Amino acid sequence: MASANASANLKPMTVFTHSSGPNPKKVLLVLEALKIPYKTEDKEFGDGPNGVKNAEFLKLNPNGRVPALIDPNQDNIVVWESGAILMYLEKFYDQGNTIGSTDLKKQIEINAWLFFQVSGLGPAQGQVNWFTHFHDSKNEDALKRYRNETDRCYQVLDKQIGSQKYICGDKFTLADAAFYPWVATADFAKISRPSNVQRWFEEVSKLDFVKKVYGQ
């Protein structure tokens, strides 16, 4: 597969999203940061005509979740799972290292924090959301377990940020794109952001492309 340059000459990518989900926002943040044209197609839960469990959408993403991405610049390749999409965009469209690094150790660090988000904080906070707002009966044991794990993940992130401007140093990277949409929904999960995370969150919120994604 040939690399492509992120420019106005690119055909718009299609990103399948959901209005309330944080994971599609990760993809939009990276697309905006790299100035890649895109269009969104909002999906619904369930197996209805526009649902993520509909047979046609399952051909794109067998897991029946958003986000998924179609890239017409690379023979309509389909990429699904938010972390995989972020790494795809960085590999093929970030020749200027806007959100990545030419330094191997730094790129490994960025990737590690990306995977910590998709395997750690994201799933834990998602379960907090479920047992707080959507489960049909109270399950305090489950809620306590996932809340404790979410708090632990936030403490790990808080220690990593420390006095840095961003998660992996002095610039916005894939790691920041992965964490920001989930940290942005901490209030919904009734999670308190630790001090360094809060400072980082406020800093990232000021970025123009972040404001654009969030309609500010």
Give a description of the structure:
It is a single chain. By secondary structure, the protein is of the alpha+beta class. The chain is globular. The chain has a four-stranded mixed sheet with strand order 2-1-3-4, with helices on one face. The protein folds into two domains: 13-94, 3-Layer(aba) Sandwich (Glutaredoxin); 104-209, Glutathione S-transferase Yfyf (Class Pi), Chain A, domain 2 (Up-down Bundle). It contains eight helices and four strands; from the N terminus they run E-H-E-H-E-E-H-H-H-H-H-H. Residues 11-97 form the GST N-terminal domain. Belongs to the GST superfamily. This is Glutathione-s-transferase theta.
Number of helices: 8
pLDDT average, as an integer? 95
Beta-strand percentage?
5-15%
Walk across the major sheet and give the strand order: 2-1-3-4
Strand tally, please?
Answer: 4
Output the helix-strand order. Answer: EHEHEEHHHHHH
Q: Level of helix content?
A: 40-55%
Oligomeric state of the chains in view: single chain
The poorly predicted ranges are: none
Main sheet characteristics? 4 strands, mixed
Number of domains: 2
The level-1 CATH class of the largest domain: Mainly Alpha
Q: Strand pairing plus helix content: what structural class?
A: alpha+beta
The CATH architecture name of the largest domain reads Up-down Bundle
CATH topology value of the largest domain: Glutathione S-transferase Yfyf (Class Pi), Chain A, domain 2
